[in-house]
Specification:
heterodimer; A: seven-stranded mixed beta sheet; B: 120 residues; 4 helices; rod-shaped
């Protein structure tokens, strides 16, 4: 396992998470993994919090969206020749380090190009707020209808992919629609993928940070326009 | 279903698809400019010869020349909006890439200067 960690890094996109980001990074530090924290133009003192950890801090000059933050992290990570596996991990405390560890182990062992975390693969979805669950399930159904690839969770920020996948990534959608863009990349280029069960922590803090329902309109619009104007 | 409706709908859809496909940006841009020029010329002609538009409109199934001009104006407007949107997107993509480059450069600079500090 240590061998895998040495070849991996985790990208944590951060936007105004001053309250929890220190704890999130501290829990990741226990893994001994290289942490690349992309501060997406936070207006609180997230940057200061991150500087007091061992994480590498990259700061965007203004807010561009989670997709842009992840792409920045990927570009930076690819600069290290020894990095073979890149993970994305949410900065709001919704994800668990133990899940990250299991995804890393999986990708190294099974040699797929990308492993996606899914909250619907195990039985703990009793804790998901109802409206969010309905919205997510709808998104999943639509995504599965539109694409060859069938997934159980299309909007999970916890994933690990290999260098090969990272090198072709080039996310064009800077906002939250990047999750769907990643799925498109997988199906368009026939990458080997897998889904693994992960647990999402829904507490009061993360509930306020979750995507507002109206934003799903934005995401759908972004995807549609990207689809008809693709290169 | 008058001829004009068929022409308009099929023409519009194919043009939108063409413009948004990034097929050959140079040719697309030239087409846009030519269409714009054609529209302006037609508008000038219709001012100079008010009955000309009527003569063009009637075989297409439209009552008045002014109506034809109105329809053309609506189309021209929609295309203007579309064009602005496309150009905006391109600009935003460039800005994002630029911001990313700066962010990464800054981080690399800081890492270098931090390393120099610890060495002393």
């Amino acid at each position: 396992m240590k061998n895998i960690i040495q070849k991996s890094c985790v990208i944590v996109p951060v936007y105004n998470e001053a309250g929890v980001i220190r704890q999130v990074i501290k829990s990741l530090e226990k893994l001994g993994i290289l942490i690349i924290c992309v501060n997406d133009g936070s207006t609180d003192n997230s940057a200061k919090q991150i500087k007091e950890t061992s994480a590498i801090l990259i700061t965007h000059p203004f807010n561009m969206g989670q997709g842009a933050a992840i792409q920045t992290g990927v570009d930076y990570a690819l600069g290290f020749a020894s990095i073979q596996y890149i993970a994305t991990f949410d900065g709001d405390g919704q994800h668990n380090v133990v899940d990250l560890k299991s995804l890393l182990h999986f990708i190294a062992k099974e040699k797929v190009d990308i492993v996606l975390g899914s909250r619907f693969l195990n039985k703990t979805h009793a804790t998901i707020p109802i409206t969010k669950k309905v919205l997510l399930k709808t998104a999943i159904t639509i995504s599965n209808l539109e694409r060859r690839i069938k997934l159980t969770d299309v909007h999970n920020g916890l994933r690990v992919f290999n260098r090969r996948f990272a090198e072709m990534l080039n996310l064009r959608l800077s906002g939250m629609a990047h999750a769907s863009e990643i799925i498109d990349r997988i199906s368009q280029n026939n990458y080997a993928f897998a889904e693994r069960a992960v647990t999402i922590n829904y507490n009061d803090y993360s509930k306020t940070k979750g995507q507002p329902l109206l934003n799903s309109v934005n995401i759908v619009a972004e995807l549609f326009l990207n689809r008809i104007s693709s290169k | 279903m008058s001829i004009i409706k068929i022409i308009l709908i099929t023409g519009l859809i194919s043009l939108v698809v063409y413009f948004m496909s990034n097929a050959d940006t140079y040719r697309v841009n030239v087409t846009k400019k030519l269409l714009g020029l054609f529209f302006v010329l037609f508008a000038i002609m219709s001012v100079l010869f008010p009955n000309l538009t009527d003569d063009v409109a009637r075989p297409l199934g439209i009552g008045r020349g002014a109506d034809l001009l109105l329809y053309l104006l609506v189309i021209a407007f929609l295309f203007t909006v579309l064009n602005v949107y496309i150009n905006n997107r391109k600009s935003n993509e460039q800005i994002t890439k630029l911001a990313r480059k700066i962010s990464i450069l800054e981080t690399k600079l800081e890492t270098k200067s931090n390393n120099k500090k610890t060495r002393i």
